Structure formats: C-alpha cells, structure tokens
Amino acid sequence: MSLFDLTGKVAIITGSSRGIGRAIAEEMAVHGARVVISSRKAEPCQEVAEAINERHGEGRAIAVPANISSKNALQALVDETRRAFGRIDVVVCNAASNPYYGPMGGISDEQFRKILDNNILSNHWLIQMALPEMRERRDGAVIIVSSIGGLRGSPVIGAYCVSKAADFQLARNLAVELGPDNIRVNCIAPGLIRTDFARALLEDPGAEERVNRNTPLRRVGEPADIAGAAVFLASAAGAYTTGQAIVVDGGTTI
Fold this sequence. Notes:
Shape: globular
CATH architecture: 3-Layer(aba) Sandwich
Strand content: 5-15%
CATH class: Alpha Beta
Number of strands: 7
Order of helices and strands: EHEHEHEHEHEHHHE
Number of domains: 1
C-alpha cells in the first residue's frame, strides 16, 4: 500500500468549489478518499462533486454548502458528512476571507473582525466539531491552509496576514493538545497562487513579472502545487508530522 493512499478516508474540504480547495479535493479523490465539497454556494459545489464522481465513481464526493461564518452551518456540514459517509478522517480548513485591500489604517472594525472570525475562529469551530470521533478512533488529520503572509508583513493585506499568523499558532496549540490521541494538526503556507482570491495582487500592472523575478522557481504557483502537500499531511506519509507549517511558495520566502 502506498504511503499516500487515502482509500477509506473521508475528508471535508472547505472552500473547495474552486482554486486551492478544489485542487486538494480532486487530488485526495485521486488517492482514494471520499470528499465533501463545501463553499457558500450550492451550485458550484455540486458541479465539482459531480465531476469527481464522474471520474472516480458515484459516491466518491458529495456537496454540502456551508458559510464558514455560521457555526450552525458548519455543524450541519459535519452532521451531513457523518450521515452520508459515516465518519470524518480529515478536515481541511481552506476557506478564508479578505474583504479589505490597503493599509491597515484604513480597515474598518467590521472588516477586521470578519477576517479574524472567518480565518481563525471558524477553523476552531469546525475542528472541534470533528474531533470527538477522531479522538475515539485515535486517528485523524487536520490541515489549515494558511499563507506565507503569516510569515511576513504587507502594506496591503495586513489584517489577513495577522489572521494567517494566528493559524500557525492554532495548529501548534492543537498539535500539542491532540498529539496524545494520535491526531495530527498542520498548516500549509502557500505563496502567491493563481486563484480568484489572488486576483487583486496579480492584476496590478507588472505584478506577475515582479513576482516571477523574485521567485526562485520563476513562476506564480498553481492550485495543484498545494494539493500534493495536503495529500502528504492527510496520509500515512505524514504520520510523524504535526504542528508544522509547510511552506509551498516556489522559494519566495528564502
């Protein structure tokens, strides 16, 4: 059996109707997992689930829309996953918000709170909801998609960077708490990835050229570049890795 085999595992991936989340869901399905596609809108989730089922067989994916800002919606996501698949083995906290682009002096309290609530507190909620059965089985993997923004300052996405730094510490704290139950908690810290979320950064004139010039691998990342790290952390290949932040940024931070 491959170290990367996820056969029999069930993974919830938030923000998985597009971008990084979709790439993670698709790659986990390739490696045998049953996946739960979740984002705010039902139709895009259903489209992704249907595409995965068409490729891998009926029942490999389901769509469960959920707004991460709602604790009730996240509980419904967990409950429906258990009803459909009978278990939860992997939680990928990928969905995040950044409603403000500019210096921190201009951010409203409401925008700042939304960033902190959606990027930190909602992760805490979802993880806690999934933990009881992981603890009972003494097995599970939690993956938080953070960002290299949590390692650096920024003149335009400062509050987002604050939230992503907090995600690193959330993973470390939970890794300490949950390690005795053989539950691993890690972060992936992507660099600039070509997604709708990064469009504001890439649309500036000359932005991509500057990024390429300052990135050792000389390109912007693609969603699929993150998926391999997620499979590693979810599978037996990552069985002795916990509390870590795996940077996947083409070398930008070095």
